[in-house]
Amino acid sequence: MKRVFLFFSGLFFVSAAIAQGVSNHEVAAFPVLHRHYYSINYPASWLVDSSGFLGGDVFIKSPKQDSLDRFSENVNVFVQDLKGKGYDLLRMGKESEEQIRNMVNDAVIVESRLDTAASTPCYRLSFKGLQGKFSLLTIQRYYLKEDIGIAVTFTMEATKEEQFENLSTSILDSFKWQ
């Protein structure tokens, strides 16, 4: 069963640069990416890859700001059919948290909680950890509807949390079931 969510916590290892801070109003004007099970808004300047990179449904990464920009902030969406596996949001989140603690160097869980008050109930999981020379902050939301599990992840350099706070929240909040 733990293999089922290995791809969710593996999202941390998908590296992706620095975007300008944006307001919630600007995010509303972002293009909407419509997929089979969901839709999500993203900055128009970001590159969308729906080739199935690393088994994901979609990979969206920021452009490089300049020649010194070493890391591309990114959004990843993974979709998995969980029919007959007995998953609920709490189990999805707790299993992923356990895998993060076992797989991510110097992992520190920042948030891990079920959010049933959100417009779309989800499990929120965020953590800091090391990937090679990068100290990253990864924010994940897990969704479940009719046995379809979806993990949406925003990954940024940990030192850029303030710069990307509005953008990451707005992108993650834009998730909608189709």
Summary tags:
single chain; alpha+beta; 178 residues; 21% helix; seven-stranded antiparallel sheet; 4 helices; 38% strand; globular; Protein Transport Mog1p, Chain A
Q: What order do the helices and strands come in, and which of them pair?
A:
Layout: H1 6-9, H2 24-28, E1 32-34, E2 38-41, E3 47-49, E4 58-61, E5 74-81, H3 89-103, E6 105-115, E7 122-131, E8 134-145, E9 148-157, H4 161-173, E10 176-177
Antiparallel strand pairs: 1-2, 2-10, 3-4, 4-5, 5-9, 6-7, 7-8, 8-9
Provide a descriptive summary of the structure in words:
The protein has 178 residues and is an alpha+beta fold. The chain has helices at residues 6-9, 24-28, 89-103, 161-173, and strands spanning 32-34, 38-41, 47-49, 58-61, 74-81, 105-115, 122-131, 134-145, 148-157, 176-177. The strands form two sheets. The protein has a seven-stranded antiparallel β-sheet with strand order 3-4-5-9-8-7-6, with helices on both faces. Strands 1-2-10 form a three-stranded antiparallel β-sheet. A hairpin with a 3-residue loop joins strand 1 (32-34) and strand 2 (38-41). The two termini are 27 Å apart.
